[in-house]
């Protein structure tokens, strides 16, 4: 037998027992888009996901991050993910346009503190309330991360229902918030977040509502110097994944993906809770006055918001069931 034939046979035998090199292994290219600023815990979550997934897959996954609206605003990245132009996105309550029940995840005054929020969103108990989201959208809800407890900021102090009644209030482009802030006595003015800094600076609106982290990362504290720690809504952020793309992953790739996603979600919750306290101190150091509502004022806000629950029950399927579920896992009800 020729020497070249013997060498070829030996090489073939060697390759048969060796694992595929990274060059030979299948490569999965992933774009993960978000709309939060570079220091926000949700952007940090994206970075943690990328680092772990690329590491445990030995480079078979190549993840490109596009936070801070780099791939477009929230609505655009949601649509791009549904179409498969990108693979993963962080999206808020806009998912309700494919599954109306998801709107009821942001009912006012139903989640009281961080322990309660973890019980609601990390236990798997909200899964039935996803309804037919995947069937209608073509995307999977891979997990729930934190937008956070929403607080009210304003150009003047808010200490009473009367003060709220003086506000021209920016709301998201979401009728849930319009209904709530009408009930609280403000003049709601829907507009996208991208226009908000200028609107606050020029007094087109008096204030807005967002978690501390969003208020800080977007720089709104520079033009709005008073905050009421109302904690009126806990807003989740959904991590959505294109269903067809995910289903094309082989079994090992799915395990890697799920592991990195689950660990990044856990990291996000821990970081978000710590970040809330850190943001309070940051905002105070930059001249923002943060006020705790008196028990009487808080009770008045909750009472004023009750018609919003009735609106939910009429307009959004599953609303009462979601409130009942949230109440069933409230640590305060188990003491």
List its traits.
335 residues, alpha/beta, D-Maltodextrin-Binding Protein, domain 2, 5-stranded mixed beta sheet, 13 helices, 17% strand
Helix-strand blueprint:
Elements (H helix, E strand, L loop, with lengths): L2 H15 L10 E6 L7 H16 L4 E6 L7 H10 L4 E4 L22 H8 L11 H5 L1 E11 L1 E4 L6 H4 L3 E4 L3 H9 L3 E4 L5 H6 L5 E4 L1 H6 L8 E3 L5 E9 H6 L2 H35 L3 E3 L3 H21 L3 H10 L7
Parallel strand pairs: 1-2, 1-3, 6-7, 9-11
Antiparallel strand pairs: 3-10, 4-10, 5-8, 5-9
Helix pairs in contact: 2-11, 7-12
From the N-terminal CA to the C-terminal CA, the straight-line distance is 83 Å
Uncertain residue segments: 14-18
One letter per element, helices H and strands E, the order comes to: HEHEHEHHEEHEHEHEHEEHHEHH
The mean pLDDT is 93
Structure, briefly:
The chain is an alpha/beta fold and 335 residues long. The protein is built from 13 helices and eleven strands.
């Amino acid at each position: 037998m020729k020497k070249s034939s013997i060498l070829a046979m030996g090489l073939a035998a060697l390759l048969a027992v060796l694992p595929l090199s990274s060059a030979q292994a299948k490569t999965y290219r992933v774009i993960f888009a978000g709309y939060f600023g570079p220091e926000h815990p949700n952007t940090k979550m994206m970075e943690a996901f990328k680092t772990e997934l690329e590491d445990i897959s030995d480079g078979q996954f190549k993840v490109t991050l596009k936070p801070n609206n780099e791939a477009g605003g929230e609505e655009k990245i949601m649509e791009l993910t549904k179409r498969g132009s990108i693979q993963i996105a962080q999206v808020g309550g806009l998912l309700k346009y494919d599954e109306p029940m998801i709107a009821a995840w942001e009912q006012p005054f139903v989640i009281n503190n961080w322990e309660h929020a973890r019980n609601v969103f990390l236990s798997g108990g909200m899964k039935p309330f996803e309804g037919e989201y995947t069937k209608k959208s073509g995307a999977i809800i891979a997990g729930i991360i934190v937008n956070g407890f929403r607080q009210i900021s304003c150009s003047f102090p808010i200490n009473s229902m009367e003060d709220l009644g003086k506000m021209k209030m920016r709301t998201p482009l979401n009728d849930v918030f319009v209904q709530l802030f009408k009930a609280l006595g403000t003049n709601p003015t829907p507009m996208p977040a991208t226009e908000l800094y200028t609107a606050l600076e020029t007094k087109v609106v008096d204030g807005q509502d967002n978690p501390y982290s969003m208020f800080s990362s977007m720089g709104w504290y520079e033009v709005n110097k008073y905050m009421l720690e109302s904690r009126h809504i806990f807003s989740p952020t959904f991590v959505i994944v294109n269903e067809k793309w995910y289903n094309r992953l082989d079994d090992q790739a799915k395990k890697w993906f799920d592991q990195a996603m689950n660990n990044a979600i856990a990291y996000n919750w821990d970081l978000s809770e710590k970040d809330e306290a850190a943001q309070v101190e940051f905002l105070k150091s930059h001249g923002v006055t943060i006020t705790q509502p008196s028990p009487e004022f808080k009770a008045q806000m909750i009472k004023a918001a009750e018609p919003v629950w009735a609106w939910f029950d009429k307009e959004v399927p599953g609303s009462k069931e979601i409130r009942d579920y949230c109440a069933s896992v409230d640590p305060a009800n188990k003491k």
